[in-house]
Amino acid sequence: MQASKSTGRVKPQKLADIILAQLEAMIIEGSLKPGEKLLPERELAVQFEVSRPSLREAIQKLEAKGLVTRKQGGGTFVCDNLLNGFSDPLFELMSNNNESQFDLLEFRHGIEGMASYYAAMRGTPADFEQIQAKHDEIGNNQLEDDFRSEAEAVVEFHLAICAASHNAVILQLARSMSALLADNIAQNLTILAKRPDIFTKITDYRKRLLNAIISGEPQKAWGASHRHLAFIEEILLKSTQENSRMERSMRRM
């Protein structure tokens, strides 16, 4: 409801604006993902129980805000560049910088720890089912022996945890960083591959995280996330030190 400035009377809110607010909420909470195609107008009108003209007006307003884009004959899509917080050159620069790799691990400590805590606290059975499915996909990708696809599967697992946190800021921030995080994880996996025994331990840490979330134990989930990343960080630091020693030895020779 809106108050009229001239009469002081309350004006009823337009139906299109109500639909607009609902669609915006779906984008914020992640029900509508970047790049996702909206249902046809006819189906959306049935879903919202509104007329097609009101729905069309709401979608036009979404488009004017830059939240969706229309493709001639192809439908309406949520814009896939909603959170371009980093330019491509900066992504590339950070991906190839050793110090940035550890900075990203520290970032993951914060974002994944919080997401795990709130996912365990607020997650629904449907959320847990999705997290379990994404966890299983990591194992399937490991069989392919492709670090890039495995890294992307790990990111999807953590995005499912972020979605289960039901915190829109955590989810959208993690999504905006997903490409950079996939690069970071792929590089980490390449380094860790020199120590095959490590992968079993990482898998075990990840299972503990999964179980803590599904069991609804927030503190345990936070701790499991921290221990998982602390272990990876420790191995990477040792590897970096060993490489540094080898380079010094080669220079002396």
TrEMBL record:
Return the Pfam families for the record.
FCD (PF07729), GntR (PF00392)
Q: Which GO terms describe its molecular function?
A: DNA binding; DNA-binding transcription factor activity
InterPro entries for the chain: GntR_C, TF_FadR/GntR_C, Tscrpt_reg_HTH_GntR, WH-like_DNA-bd_sf, WH_DNA-bd_sf
Q: Which UniProt keywords apply?
A: DNA-binding, Repressor, Transcription, Transcription regulation
Domain HTH gntR-type, chain residue ranges per copy: 13-81
Which PROSITE patterns does the record cross-reference, listed alphabetically? HTH_GNTR
Quote the CDD domains the UniProt record gives: WHTH_GntR
UniProt keyword Cell division, yes or no? no
Purpose of the protein: Transcriptional repressor for the pyruvate dehydrogenase complex genes aceEF and lpd.
Protein name according to UniProt? Pyruvate dehydrogenase complex repressor
Ranked from the top, the taxonomy reads:
Bacteria, Pseudomonadati, Pseudomonadota, Gammaproteobacteria, Alteromonadales
